[in-house]
From TrEMBL, chains A, B:
One of its GO terms (molecular function) is glycosyltransferase activity. This is Predicted glycosyl hydrolase, GH43/DUF377 family. PANTHER family: GLYCOSIDASE. Pfam families: Glyco_hydro_130. The keyword ATP-binding does not apply. The lineage of its organism: Bacteria, Pseudomonadati, Bacteroidota, Flavobacteriia, Flavobacteriales. The keyword Hydrolase applies. InterPro entries: Glyco_hydro_beta-prop_sf, Mannoside_phosphorylase. Keywords: Glycosyltransferase, Hydrolase, Transferase.
């Protein structure tokens, strides 16, 4: 009998030691959250590489890009009363917040789907300009005809928003700026239009009222978005009680658009669930997972930079099989094969 | 010598007692924040009317619309430990938040610009559907050719976003859904396109990183928006240190787009400032007020439902004069005449 989820035997596929830092003085802290796509018969992934600076005695150092794209290191003395470094991910100095790591994206290819290689032919993508001074993260890739749409998280002191780039050759990219304004992330564009309209999932967050819910938006051109609707809210006492957001683009099935999403509880444990959306109007939810379809079980999913985390934003589909790439413990990249028909059985 | 600001001698023009509640059992708490426009030679305003329910002994009652648009009253016992009613504007029950008042919009007209009348010909606009169950607020009106674009705040447990309606006759309205997803408000659409593109100010807020900053977005059709850019951030120790947001649509001058905005400090004191934006690329800021161009001075601005507040989202322009309608103390509607040339002198 087919299982819903089968993890790959060589997991984790990629770990921080497997790649070189972007420059001297930087250390790769996490490899995570790959977008995935097919290109010229190969499987490609767009990997998030989170780096920190080598730390100096008695100091906390954080990396940021200036608006020209140059990396700067800011050093703060550990004894400084204006410094709050109690969170491993964010430090605060004199009321301003900085990330302890800065992320960029790398493009890797594989012939077999699990052995990935980097080449100079496809250089990394770094943050650029005023909206990416704290880096870029968690890229989804959607292919519409010959064009790949890359939606990713832009991070800066202006806030956290969704950036869009398009490419046809993975070497030259056209930037379309910020397509969803702060606070927003987890954006995945559908891989075909529905009744002439583009659709995208996104995940706004609110400082008051509302929450960390999954939304859908419409577009006439894939670049300008409107008609925002909330399609899935957090549910008390379940795996998705604190936050949820889209994985990769949904998969078209006979029963509807199948979307895999991540849901987290207040213990920051990240599992995966599924949504089934109306084929003709994807803002209508037909069904939603009562229980996770996948949860942290393996050691590399339970222990790492941030343990008890499974987070996916990339897959490629072959027949009934979803080759799903995912970030494990915010530190490694792993692969699991999911069965579309078995997931659909849980959504009756 | 001309002054920057001249308040109208009959201020406040409108107060809660001047209008009738929308239905029995409701009490008008505040009249505030009017959008303004010209229609058939008259001045129109779209007023926010905030109502509360008549309170019962030992209870707190809050009004909400259900998804069919029916008004429901929720009653909470004052002794209930799940109730937190320490804030006059928001109560919390069992982790869920509700507003103590619910707002709708009313359309009033004036022949002289300061005596406004309601008529049955132009009925009020109430919240409708899942995104307006807590009401609708603070409507800006922009006229582009013969069409009026109404951008207003939609409030519900899904979050706070920007809704868009269009009309040509102020009787029938076309709804375009939520055009800026949560958390967003203070949206004003430019009254003409620039190089073929629509522009709009908006004000996203973030639960982490970023702040309550003023942004601009582009659109090809006035309905779907993208290319979001931050044009003005809060400034420490100034009148706009905590939050800022657009007033009405900007005014085209020879020196650039002149935008009046509200800025608040951490004492919740709301003043007005001005921005001058590049005529050809309104995302470029040419100049910004060092000091407020108007601040709460009169008794009706200093004392009321929420004192020390001047908030504008509506004006009509005649030559050098801006007839600016504004909410005073979150309770009254007032009028001041501002001089474009005098404001521009402060922006050298």
């Amino acid at each position: 009998m087919k299982k819903i989820v089968a993890r790959h035997g060589q997991n984790p596929l990629l770990s921080p030691k497997d790649l070189k830092p972007s420059r001297p003085g930087m250390v790769i802290e996490c490899l995570l959250n790959p977008g995935a796509f097919k290109y010229k018969g190969k499987t490609g992934i767009v990997l998030r590489v989170a780096e920190r600076t080598q730390q100096k005695e008695g100091m906390v150092s954080v990396p940021i890009y200036d608006e020209k794209g140059e990396l700067k290191i800011l050093d703060f003395s550990l004894g400084d009363p204006k410094l709050d470094n109690s969170d491993a991910r964010v430090i605060s100095y004199d009321g301003k917040q900085y990330l302890t790591t800065i992320s960029h994206l790398r493009i890797l290819f594989s012939a077999d789907g699990f052995t990935f290689e980097e080449s100079e032919e496809f250089p990394p993508i770094f943050g650029q300009g005023a909206y990416e001074t704290y880096g870029i993260e968690d890229c989804r890739v959607s292919q519409i005809k010959d064009t790949y749409y890359l939606t990713y998280t832009m991070v800066s002191s202006n806030g956290v928003g969704v950036g869009l780039k398009t490419t046809t050759d993975w070497k030259t990219f056209k930037s379309h700026g910020m397509v969803f304004s702060p606070h927003n992330k987890d954006c995945a564009i559908f891989e075909e239009t529905v009744n002439g309209r583009f659709y995208a999932f996104h995940r706004p967050s609110s400082p008051e009222l509302g929450g960390n819910y999954m939304w859908i938006a419409e577009s006439m051109d894939g670049i300008h978005w409107g008609n925002h609707k909330c399609i899935a809210r957090t549910r008390p006492d379940r795996f998705d009680s604190a936050r949820l957001g889209a994985g990769a683009a949904p998969i078209k099935t006979e029963r509807g658009w199948l979307a895999i999403y991540h849901g987290a509880d207040y213990g920051h444990r990240y599992c995966l669930g599924a949504l089934l959306l109306d084929l003709d109007d994807p803002s209508k939810v037909v069904s939603r997972s009562e229980f996770p379809i996948m949860e942290p079980e393996e050691p590399y999913e339970k222990v790492g930079f941030f343990g008890e985390v499974i987070f996916t934003n990339g897959h490629v589909v072959n027949g009934d099989d979803i080759y799903m790439y995912y970030g494990a413990s915010d530190e490694h990249v792993a692969l699991a094969t999911l069965s579309i028909s078995e997931i659909l059985k849980t959504l009756d």
